[in-house]
Write a structure and sequence with these properties.
single chain, YefM-like fold, three-stranded mixed beta sheet, 38% helix, 16% strand, Antitoxin, YefM-like_sf
Length: 79
Amino acid sequence: MKWKLAEAKNRLSVVVNRALNEGPQTITRRNDTVVVISAETYAELTGQRRSFKDFLMSGPSLERHDLERDKSPMRDVDL
């Protein structure tokens, strides 16, 4: 949505909520224009990514799974 600067100043909370939920919001002042976007969108546009560790840590919990290694000897196989 396009906003005039005065209206955007008076309704900043609405502008921010719309940027988060609907996408970029354009604010104009005379001949100047700026865009309000979410931090997530900014990171995507600038190529910033989460680290691999952060990606793994944000996944589901593995606490309910038994991750102990089976220590029984392996079977004999003729090759």
